[in-house]
Known about the structure:
By secondary structure, the protein is of the alpha+beta class. The protein has two domains: 3-176, no CATH class; 189-210 and 255-292 and 300-397, Nucleotidyltransferase, domain 5 (2-Layer Sandwich). The chain has helices at 13-44, 50-63, 73-96, 213-216, 218-230, 236-270, 281-284, 303-316, 318-332, 376-397; strands at 3-10, 113-116, 123-125, 135-139, 143-147, 156-165, 168-176, 189-194, 198-202, 207-209, 273-277, 291-292, 298-299, 335-339, 364-366, 373-375. A seven-stranded antiparallel β-sheet has the order 2-6-7-1-5-4-3. The longest helix is centred in the middle third of the chain and has 35 residues, at 236-270.
Amino acid sequence: MRRSFTFPLRPTRHQEIALAQCLEDHRQLYNAALEHRRTAYRVAGATVRYGEQSAELKHIRADDPEGQGRWSFSSQQATLRRLDKAFAAFFRRVKTGHKPGYPRFKGRGRFDTVTWQKDGDGCRWDSGPHHPTMTFVRLQGIGHVRVHQHRRVLGTVKTISVRRAGHRWFVVLSCDDVPAETLPPTGAMAGIDMGVASLTTTSDGDRLENRRHLAASAARLAVAQRELARAARGSRRHRKVAARLSALHAKVRRQRLDAAHKAALVLIRTYDVIVHEALEVTNMTRRATPQPDGHGGYLPNGAAAKSGLNRSILDAGWGVFLTILSHKAESAGRELIAVNPANTSRTCAPCGHRAKENRLTQAVFRCTACGHVAHADVNAATNILRAGLALRDAARAA
């Protein structure tokens, strides 16, 4: 199987400047290739593809030896492929009737990753193998950069990426042939209901806490945001406050990711079969649609309440958690099943009666037909488990 390993970089000041320049030159290459495609189609109606732009790299590098010529040919091809994938996704969305989203030019804060397509082609992982205590990655045009390797790399390193997050730098290794870490069977199975009060509630009644990391840091974020608004754009104070604000958001992201890993690990170690809701988090967190009143104004649409719910859902990190859960399940040999969550919260688990009135409050479920009383999330998780097992049985019978 394929896995990614992310490690912090410890570049020197000169290496940090070179890394920033590498990102900038790749950003300019991306934007120039995008402009080339736009102009060719607008002027001549011609479609420019990756092969043609890749062939021009040789001349671009020869004309700019101190700029584009410094960097790896392979990494520049990866940047052009990135643009090609953006166009492929654009045309796919057009065909399927979704919002197209034409590829955009990348600003300085919107291009933070450079990829080398093969270990040994413009880059080399563990470039100082004889060093007794430290690990280095060698990058063409930058040199041997120290890596804080806090765990062992498994499998074969295929691609190497360098990513900037705020003022920190990371190396990401994509590895093939990573051995699966299969866990012993437990014989247990559970359905899980995603929530805001608790991150997950299982059909057994166990609950995993939602830490609400964004809410916990909201006061400090608000203070930093006000200071940023008062600072003059481009000033030293503006840069300093922006860096502090970015660091606060990065800390919240790391906390959320860490909590998601720990919660997923608890479930993977406990259950052989896990059934969860197939949630469309992007659709669930769309803002409320404005409702014109016909007189130039708008009717009340609950936008404030919807905004607060959206913030709580995003703070819980459902999408991140489910992605991590799927990766851990694959590695551990567990079975993960996604089911349609429709009506799971209003259907009685024992008798199957479905009614909106069954769910009295956010936490209490009382069936109007049989009188069954339970925690609403536990009842929903039981329905989710039953639906997942039915899907599995149907797939096996087919």
